[in-house]
Amino acid sequence: MSILEIRGLSFAYKKEPVLKNISFSVEEGQFIGLLGPNGGGKTTLLRAIGALVFVKTGRVLIANKYVSAIKRSEIARLISYVPQLSAPVFGFTVNETVLMGRTPYLKGFFQPSKQDLLAVEQAIERTGLSPVKDREVSTLSGGQYQRVLIARALAQDTPLLLLDEPTAHLDIRFQSEVLALVKSLKEKTIVASFHDLALAKKFCDRVLVLDLGSVVADGEPSKALSGQTIRSVFGIEP
Amino acid sequence: MNNQRPVVLFAALLLVLAGAVLLSLVSGAVFLNPFDGSPLAGTILWQVRLPRIILSGLVGAMLAVSGAVLQAVLKNDLADPYILGISSGGALGAALAIVMSLPLILVSSSAFIFAFAAVLTVAFISGAGGRRDPSSLILAGVAVSSFAGAVLALLIGASDKLRSVYFWMLGSFSFAGMEQIYAAGICLFAGLFAALWMRRQLNAFLFGEEEARSLGVDTVSARWALLLAASLMSGVSVAFCGVIGFVGLMVPHMVRTVSGPDHQTLIPFSAMTGAIFMVLADTASRCFFVPSEVPVGIITALAGAPFFIYLLVRSKRAA
Question: Which helix (H) or strand (E) holds B69?
């Protein structure tokens, strides 16, 4: 069953189209990599899938529901999102930040339930943050904070996880570490953007190459990233 | 944070508030012993000073909570009802209603509507959405504030009725009555309820618009609701007590350094601290130049303007 389906999606922030008539569907449990040069539309596509921008043309279906037709809190129970550039909010601990992943499940004056706290605890454990869970986030390294954001998305307990350049600001050592962590989340469908072809090749089940807002290649990394695609899209010799 | 700590802090704040109220009761043009028993002292204590203390506490709490809400929703450390021109907008609204001799409820409603219009204008000018530049928000506030202030000055020039309440504009609690106390109490309750009900949304706003949305916050409707609550509290404060600046700026910052950024504690603690601060500021305004009074807005500006500069310098260093 396809968990995510994109049909004829086009998008423009102002006049210039950033995404042009994109259609594809994603099977449950896949790890999809979005590749392409800067300005190719990777981040915008992730934003459109997560309904973080207002999509006028085309449809996004998640678990057979139109994202545009459901409430924000319900979307957030289906899709979690790890942004690329996120400044830690000064003063919150790791535990408090991860607990914010439960926002779509909590309402008004109600306190977090046992189930909420359990989800937070498990997310912290899986991301290896238990030793620092009471530390203030602003004292963490970039790699640790990236894991906090992933933990927050895990606590959100969604079938689909979107990651925007999860390795962009990390040392090489942390890049593989974070991706191995993401790869280990077998029960989730993952769509992540990359600027590093080798990393995408190593970790993704399937890659989509975006150039000038269109999908120019789609498939298993070894096939989709053919010499010709790399030459024409990235302008480098493979 | 330890589960006991917020409770202890809240109890401590209650004690300090009680102390401030007591201090404010006995001090003024003359020192009065609340247990004196003489009828004249009783009248001054319970019918002149006490209503004024209660109103100043309510207004302090409203201004502090609306500052905390604005700082989160607009994601700007320098946000405050006064700095963003919300107070000036509210003052203009109140003055218009006063010129037309409308009853108190309409004066406060008009202040609320104009305050809301001011905050919407400021948010719109400085660019709605997540990519707001911090300084443009402040500049938009200056523009709106100056414009509303200019229209207000024209009104004062044209109306004798307003000239007589000119003192009100600079912030004063000398018009405290039961009617104002009830209305302020209801508005504070409504504002506090909204801010606490939406405390998770307020927390999510701290991460920016996009992340807040991905955490399931309908940022558009949440922003409307929270800006309405902030305008209600600051607009009504202005209608009763004039323009009192910087309380909404200072108090949430002080509270944050003690109990952190979580709005679950920030909102109630800001309300308490705002009340304490305002009761003390009003006491000072009554005692400094006996027998005359200094407008309380001048007292808060004396403390608040340097604090604003400190925050500005700090944010410049961080950038």
Answer: helix B50-73
Sheet with A17-27, edge to edge strand ranges: A17-27, A2-12, A57-62, A65-66
Contact B261 A90 (CB under 8 A): yes
Cα–Cα distance, A196 to B101 (Å, whole number): 70
Which residue is associated with the tokens 């998640």? A62
Which amino acid is it at B93? Answer: G
| Residues in Cβ contact with A56 at an 8 Å cutoff, skipping those fewer than 6 apart | A11
Which contiguous run of DSSP H or E holds residue A163?
Answer: strand A160-163
**Between the CA of residue A186 and those of A154, A164, A183, what are the distances in Å?**
12, 19, 7
Which residues does B209 contact at the CB level (< 8 Å), separation at least 6? B75, B129, B130, B219
Task: Give, in degrees to the nearest 5, the angle at Cα B241 between B236 and B243.
Answer: 85
B214 contacts in A (CB within 8 Å)? Answer: 50, 52, 76, 79-81, 83
CA distance B247 to B298: 12
Name chain A contacts of B1, Cβ cutoff 8 Å.
93
Q: Is the separation of the CB atoms in A5 and A25 below 8 Å?
A: yes
* A131 burial type by CB count under 10 A (0-12 exposed, 13-18 middle, 19+ buried): exposed
How far is it, in rounded angstroms, from Cα A32 to Cα A233? Answer: 19
Residue A113 burial (CB count, 10 A)? 12
Chain B nearest-CA residue for A163: B214
Q: Which chain B residue's Cα is nearest to A82?
A: B211
Chain B residues at the A interface, defined by Cβ less than 8 Å, are 1, 196-197, 200-201, 203-204, 206-208, 210-211, 213-218, 256, 260-262
Q: For residues A191 and A189, what is the distance between their CA atoms, to the nearest angstrom? A: 7
Query: Shortest Cα distance from B188 to chain A (angstroms)?
Result: 18
State how far residue A80 is from chain B, nearest Cα, in angstroms. Answer: 6
d(CA B182, CA B45): 19
DSSP state of B48: I
Mutation for A interface: B3, B197, B214, B269, most A CBs within 10 A: B214
Q: Which residues of B touch A72 (CB under 8 A)?
A: 213, 216-218
B200, A103: Cβ pair inside 8 Å?
yes
Other beta carbons within 10 angstroms of residue B282's beta carbon come to: 31
Query: pTM, whole model, 2 decimals?
Result: 0.92
User: Tens-digit pLDDT profile for chain B (319 aa)?
Assistant: 456 888 999 999 999 999 999 999 998 877 887 777 788 888 888 888 999 999 999 999 999 999 999 999 998 889 999 999 999 999 999 999 988 989 989 999 999 999 999 999 998 888 754 456 778 888 999 999 999 999 998 988 888 877 767 777 778 887 778 999 999 999 999 999 999 999 999 999 999 889 999 999 999 999 999 999 999 999 999 999 999 999 999 999 999 999 899 999 999 999 999 999 999 999 999 888 877 888 899 999 999 999 989 888 887 776 5
- DSSP code, position B126: T
CB spacing of A72 vs B206 below 8 angstroms: no
